[in-house]
Amino acid sequence: VQLQASGGGLVQAGGSLRLSCAVSGGTFSSYAMGWFRQAAGKEREFVSGVNWSGSDTYFADSVKGRFIISRDNAKKTVYLQMNSLRPEDTAVYYCAADTYGILTEESVYDRSEYDYWGQGTQVTVSS
């Protein structure tokens, strides 16, 4: 299973970006998917997650109301729409796949829950 994240870039505060994570191999439609980010000098942190069906989504408090996660099982892709971006959103963003397929309010934050990781895409928000 391989994950390829894309869509990062440089944007001004208040702007928007949409990240994509394309998955090859495996059975994407049965995977739960997550987005994490890692700012320079900080630990990787949870951003958002979605269960295999797309019916359950999760967000870190810091992005709730600004970010939207979605998935297209036909395209084997998960998206992260990021709106109202802030300088503190600057980080490398990683997508991850959980082959169990179901995330919970507790497990979604746990990096060890995820089996596969993408290479990351840089998001820089200027003030």
Task: Describe what this molecule looks like in 3D.
With 127 residues, the protein is an all-beta fold. The protein is built from no helices and eleven strands. The chain has strands spanning 2-6, 9-12, 17-24, 32-38, 45-50, 57-59, 67-72, 77-82, 91-98, 116-117, 121-126. The strands form two sheets. Strands 2, 4, 5, 6, 9, 10 and 11 form a seven-stranded mixed beta sheet that branches. The protein has a four-stranded antiparallel beta sheet with strand order 1-3-8-7, with no helix packed on it. The protein is globular, with a radius of gyration of 13 Å. The mean pLDDT is 96.
Number of H/I helices? 0
Mean pLDDT, rounded to whole units?
96
Distance between the termini: 37 Å
Largest sheet: 7 strands, mixed
Overall morphology: globular
- Decide which structural class fits the backbone: mainly beta
Q: Estimate the helix proportion, in percent.
A: under 10%
Report the strand count.
11
What is the string of helix and strand elements?
A: EEEEEEEEEEE
Poorly predicted tracts of residues: none
In terms of DSSP E residues, the strand content is over 45%
